[in-house]
Amino acid sequence: MNKPRFKPYKSASGGWGSAFSVANILIREKSPVGSGLLLLKQNKPIEGFACVSCAWAKPHPARPFEFCENGAKATAWENTSNRCGPDFFAQHTVTELLNWRDYDLEQQGRLTHPLRWNAETDKYEPIRWDVAFREIGDELRAMADPNDVVFYTSGRAALETSYMFQLFARMYGTNNLPDSSNMCHESTSIALPESIGVPVATVTLNDMEKTDGLFFFGQNVGTSSPRMLHQLEEARQRGAPIVTFNPIRERGLEKFTNPQSPTEMATGKEITISTHYNQVAIGGDIAAMAGMCKKLFEMDDQARAAGKPRVLDVDFIEQHTHGLEAFEAKIRSYTWEELERRSGLTRSAMELAAMVYARCERVIGVYGMGLTQHRQGVMNIQMLVNLLLLRGNMGKEGAGILPVRGHSNVQGQRTVGITEKASHVPAENLKKQFGFQAPQDDGVNTVEACEGIVSGKVKAFIGLGGNFVRAVPETLLMEPAWRRLRLTVQISTKLNRNHLVHGEKSYILPCLGRTEIDVQATGEQRHTTEDSTGCIRAWRGVAKPAAPNLLSEPAIVAALAKATLEPNPRLDWDAWVADYSLIRDAIAESYPDIFHDFNVRMLEPGGFHRPLGASERKWATETGKANFITPDKLTPDDDIEPDLKKQGVLQLMTLRSNDQFNTTVYGYSDRFRGVYGTRAVILMNRRDMARHGLAEGDMIQAITAVDDGVHREVGPLRVTPYDIPEGCCGGYYPECNPLIPLWHYAERSKVPAAKSIPIRLRKVIAVVKDRNVPSEPASPAGVGAV
Ligand SMILES: Nc1nc2c(c(=O)[nH]1)N[C@H]1C(S)=C(S)[C@@H](COP(=O)(O)OP(=O)(O)OC[C@H]3O[C@@H](n4cnc5c(=O)[nH]c(N)nc54)[C@H](O)[C@@H]3O)O[C@H]1N2
Ligand SMILES: Nc1nc2c(c(=O)[nH]1)N[C@H]1C(S)=C(S)[C@@H](COP(=O)(O)OP(=O)(O)OC[C@H]3O[C@@H](n4cnc5c(=O)[nH]c(N)nc54)[C@H](O)[C@@H]3O)O[C@H]1N2
Ligand SMILES: [Mo]
């Protein structure tokens, strides 16, 4: 491991830094990508594969190189030549592996054999596929109540697998189908239907080409969806302003050098991405947007008085919206003083943002985890919609709302039934197709699944991908509770911590990755996904499977279902596995509005879009209109926050580095933030450091500042000065997850509030030489013995 280094990164995002980073990862993973061949197929529909990293839309026609630095890393990660087979497991007990870092676990490479944990040896041992399925089926059939089982999905599985998985769970008798979205964009799924009657983005790539202004809240484009930088570059070249709200100056939101443009690379030309950068306080977005709205109302008053064209889109508001009056009254009632205090921005910054907004005719509101992962996550999003509605920026070309989704098919999984909510299930159609009644009670979401695991209600967990126990809050409560589960089954590509924190009976079922060729009885199979813009397309793997023994995800889900359920004369799981187009026929029957003629339309150049009423100004809301929703508070702590500040409490946001995909740590270089060789850091404002008597390089323990009788602590973390608003600090996810109380989540959506954890600091070592900084907090579970 390299010695830790802390050095601000001067270059733009993209550029040579990106090119070198891609080269490094290809060399390290000894991946066939090194030949470059695989990457040329990346994000090329029909005959190529969809990137396994983010869900950002893929343009049609595709560029020759339709991948980014992080997409290349994700492909290389999946196509590594390292293998984690029976030999590895023969050498290491699970207890020993529990002390390994996330990085070292996944670095072992692709899983090659189905494995069963042996309690006597404390090792995972190879097992035959048919035996594994039979044993798991026996366990599931022996459960007293189907609701004792949780069927979790991480957002990567294709539409076909996801549809089969939800059908399996529902036929088994439960709606317990939590997914990664419950930790991510569930705030979107609650907020948008109330506001505009659709649960997802209203924007397509065509709108990105036509927009004349982008307002960016809490989304780190340079790391989380770098391909979008191409659309942002084009928008900037058209002269469209980009106004950003983010507590820290993320490099991808500042400047970009297109690594695929020979001229830009040769000349080092940098494109300014954000024309206006507002370092809003963590959790200050409602206040910031309220400030913008207040200014818009004031500008509209002036325009009206002067007989000039109105600033508000009064025709749109009149015809298409509901609730302006209450909203306007509330916004006007806020004083600039309180808006400044809550947002951390100056009045003039908010006013300027409003004036830029008012000058644009077609605006897109873009957002990510900086809005969703807050206690007021749902209201954050509804406030952004309010702002858009004031000027009719919904349902017209070049305008709309753009939640940038995370996992590459997380949006699509919801579309085909991965949801715990009974009301979202096409129960009538399922009954017609398969002659069974889907369960009518809601199942558990992610937080409720955790509660059920802690209380002992949940007895078994089947994970279709993901690293659940590492991704969820409250690590120190969850890990011991997890061990009390009767059965844990993980369908996975690589070894992760959730395999090691396991139930009494535990199985790892290794699957093909999406980049790999999937041959079944009728030949090579395609699969489909839906991206952040609701575009559905077909793909196929092109790489040789990592091991001969791997099964595809549909084959594994089908075998589990067959081993568990009574045979159903209307559902031939084997025929589905032999020919995935039959699964797509079934999807089309369940969801005809979206998926009619699925097998044909998936091959259309550019794919097809799901219909979205809001983008045609048809509002499937209770009022039949787009709704202004009035915030009742600017921050969840309106009443207590000043007090907390006095007591030295900081708001911690947990961040992704540029060298990770969720719990997968590719390496220890967060280049854009200038942090190298370690993830055991806390990024702090210098004035807060002084206030806490801390110097750069001091080591601290972070302790959650809530009063519920539970002690939560992570460390040691190196104090690292950073350009971040006072009262705010940053640390890395997942290392900081032990700090998040399970009950600390967004109201109504229950998305863990991973971006505003109140913490206190305790100094443990005064300035140490940086060579002593650990690469990660002391143990994977986060609590450091000091
Ligand atoms: N390379 C890479 N790509 C990924 C992922 C990955 O881990 N690595 N993960 C994927 C997944 S599942 C998801 S959900 C997405 C996540 O992608 P993003 O939505 O970008 O999520 P984060 O990186 O967690 O944080 C987003 C930003 O929110 C800012 N922020 C924090 N608090 C606030 C706040 O109160 N207000 C505002 N305005 N901003 C705030 C942070 O500074 C950060 O820049 O990315 C996907 N793509
Ligand atoms: N503190 C904090 N916590 C967070 C977040 C945060 O910002 N802060 N973000 C949240 C968000 S947005 C999300 S989406 C969740 C992520 O939670 P998850 O989706 O559960 O976690 P991942 O890290 O994406 O899962 C990685 C594992 O997936 C498996 N895998 C990879 N590819 C495949 C495949 O093709 N098929 C199968 N079957 N398995 C595969 C590998 O074994 C790998 O180890 O974490 C959440 N937790
Ligand atoms: Mo996510």
TrEMBL record:
Pfam families: Molybdopterin. One of its GO terms (cellular component) is membrane. Residues 110-467 form the Molybdopterin oxidoreductase domain. Its EC number is 1.17.1.9. Its cofactor is [4Fe-4S] cluster; Mo-bis(molybdopterin guanine dinucleotide). The keyword Metal-binding applies. SUPFAM superfamilies: ADC-like, Formate dehydrogenase/DMSO reductase, domains 1-3. One of its GO terms (molecular function) is formate dehydrogenase (NAD+) activity. Keywords: 4Fe-4S, Iron, Iron-sulfur, Metal-binding, Molybdenum, Oxidoreductase. The keyword Flavoprotein does not apply. Belongs to the prokaryotic molybdopterin-containing oxidoreductase family. This is FdhF/YdeP family oxidoreductase. It comes from Pseudomonas luteola.
